[in-house]
Design a protein that fits this description.
With 188 residues, the protein is an alpha/beta fold. It contains five helices and six strands; from the N terminus they run βαβαβαββαβα.
Length: 188
């Protein structure tokens, strides 16, 4: 069985200790990509940091990305600029924040426009039907543009600590399905 490096990409303001990303990090040993500025995120800085982490990892180890909220936008922005996208085999994108929302524009000024190009790796986008940071319609637009398989998580808010997901086994099952999908030999 192939080994994968799993990188956790939190969104704006980071993921606190009761967030499922933090719990996965503690339970499964996944690596968080720490940003230098969580409160006033600059897209270019976040892209550079992800690139640095990818390039300093073991070059022969494939990578799975697990992004939440603005972390999903990071994946799309990074993939539209990087020459190292071949390192990433798949991405689980959860509850993408929408930087074009009126309330978020003043804080996320460098995150618009949102890249709407197909991601060069397999991806799943899980979204909630009642996410205050991104409508389900907009999340589906992101999924379509990025070539991600859409999975509705139901009425779960922003799929964060406030959603009381605990270790969020449903999300981790999606990650394991992605892992199996990219590990499977190509069918002839």
């Amino acid at each position: 069985m192939n080994s994968f490096a799993v990188l956790i990409l939190p969104g704006w303001q980071n993921s606190g200790p009761s967030h499922w990303q933090s719990r996965w990090e503690a339970v499964h040993g996944y690596q968080r990509v720490e940003q230098h500025e969580w409160l006033r995120p600059l897209r270019g800085d976040w892209i550079s940091r992800l690139e640095d982490v990818l390039l300093t990892g073991a070059q022969d180890e494939p990578v799975l990305l697990v992004a939440h909220s603005l972390g999903c936008q990071l994946v799309a922005a990074w993939a539209s600029h990087s020459k190292n996208t071949h390192r990433v085999k798949a991405a689980l994108l959860v509850a993408p924040g929408d930087p074009d929302q009126e309330a978020l524009r003043p804080v996320l000024t460098s995150w618009s426009p949102v890249p709407m190009q197909r991601l060069p790796f397999t991806s799943v986008l899980m979204g909630s039907e009642n996410d205050s940071y991104c409508s389900s319609e907009r999340a589906r637009q992101f999924a379509d543009a990025w070539g991600a398989h859409w999975v509705s998580a139901g009425l779960m808010g922003h799929l964060n600590a406030d959603s009381q997901l605990g270790d969020w086994p449903e999300g981790h099952a999606q990650l394991q399905k992605l892992r199996a999908q990219v590990q499977a030999p190509p069918s002839t």
